[in-house]
Design brief:
The protein is mainly alpha-helical and about 220 residues long. It has helices at about 1-25, 35-40, 45-55, 75-100, 105-120, 125-145, 150-170, 175-195, 200-220; strands spanning about 30-35, 60-65, 70. The chain has two domains: about 1-70, Winged helix-like DNA-binding domain superfamily/Winged helix DNA-binding domain (Arc Repressor Mutant, subunit A, Orthogonal Bundle), CATH 1.10.10; about 75-220, Four Helix Bundle (Hemerythrin (Met), subunit A) (Up-down Bundle), CATH 1.20.120. The protein contains nine helices and three strands; from the N terminus they run αβααββαααααα.
Amino acid sequence: MTGMTEDRESHDGYRRFREALLQGRLQPGMMLTQNELCDLLGLSMSPLRETLVLLEEYGLVEVKPRTVIRIVFPEVAFIRENFQFRIMIKTHALRAFGDRVTDGWLWTMRLRHEECRAALEDLSQFDELHGRLKSMDTKMHRDIVESLDNRAILETHARLQDNLGMARRAHRRSVYRAQLIDTINEHMAVLTCLENRDLSWAIAALEAHFRASTHRTFAA
């Protein structure tokens, strides 16, 4: 029972840590004491220590001597490792997804991408479309990973997505209309291969999408 309680507390602490990063109350590279982090996350010392074990395991913090905690800044190695792990999961999942994807899912996903691409002609909708495309991207990738029917892999994939989102915010990369169109076109290439039931080309298209996404977001 004690182990279950500690696990629940550490995951609650992890959730609060992620929320603080997303809200900007914590910043990559920031250094805090354990007491300061307790106050910021609203945790007592015992659950904080359980949370720190999890955060260290995930590579998100470094605990320095004298109980100083450094929030990891997403350098190139951090970004590369997370992208590589994400690609491994997605290519494995796509093999399972390709055998069971329905025409209805493909039709709906293609329609949504085509609507976004057409709407991008109206620059006044850019901010709203960026949010729509991000949501569509999340659904497309999550649906593929869910085909594995493995909660641990799904949670790991979500964590990698959060890590890469943190990296994008930390590096403050601007998003341009041409980049969104490129993303749509890359997604459509994957969809076309799935429609043709050509799994090997679908995997190749997905890998090309990830390479382009890495370059778009983090290239100097």
